[in-house]
Amino acid sequence: MKLQKVAIVSKVGSKDSEQAAKDIAKKLLAKKSTIYTISPIQVEGAKQLETLEELKKIKLDLVITLGGDGTTLRVFRNLDNETPILTINVGGNRGILAEITYDEIDVAIDQMLKGKFFLDKRIRVVASCGGEEFPPALNEIYINRSNLTKTSEINIKFQNDTVKQKMDGVIVATPSGSTGHSFSLGGPILHESLNVLIITPVAPVYRLASIVVPDEKIEITCSHDCNIVMDAQVVKAAGFDEPIIIKKYKKPAVFVRLKKRGLRQMSKLGF
After folding, report:
1. Which CATH class is domain 5-122+252-268?
2. In the chain, at which end, N or C, are there fewer CB atoms within 10 A of the end residue's CB?
């Protein structure tokens, strides 16, 4: 892998993550790479960007994230192309999406330069409503009722079938997101390489289990105003009975992996 243009993104507000970002920037600058950092990170010789959105204008070879899963989700949302990300758990919790810890960075850089890695492509989902397409999500899209005093009737349409029931909301999760919110509600863990989606009802009046479906279009309508939440970070609104379309996003999220781990998710969850 060529490391000519590399962006380094740290966890917001984490001093450990910010210091690690500076240290890695210096290591790569010594290898003659062009380095981009995000404010407030400043490193002599690196180019500082004010916002993550500016990454969309640069053709990068690699992005390195330092933080937890939230940092990685935030960066993927701001990449228009299939730029690969090397994820490093610094200041995060479990870091389910992370590939390495900071102590392994020197070995990781050496392996990438020697081509000893592979690219792990994951499906993402995107929601649209009222003619507007929202930012893509790597983990899940969560639709919930805006008015907590009223239980909404939610219609879930897939292919030629419709399920209608009163519930608090519904989650459409990817295999990457199967260890997140959907899992806490009893949804299954899916291997990250699968091209499927999970539909997980949230607190239905009558028990309704999760279902795994092909990665095709899902249409959801709600009898009351509702929120559309992408990866627990971006919130949009939809009116009552306004169709919300959820489908596979046109471009996958791409991770740099240094070795194959068939049960990565289970080991990260502590099994």
Report:
1. alpha beta
2. C
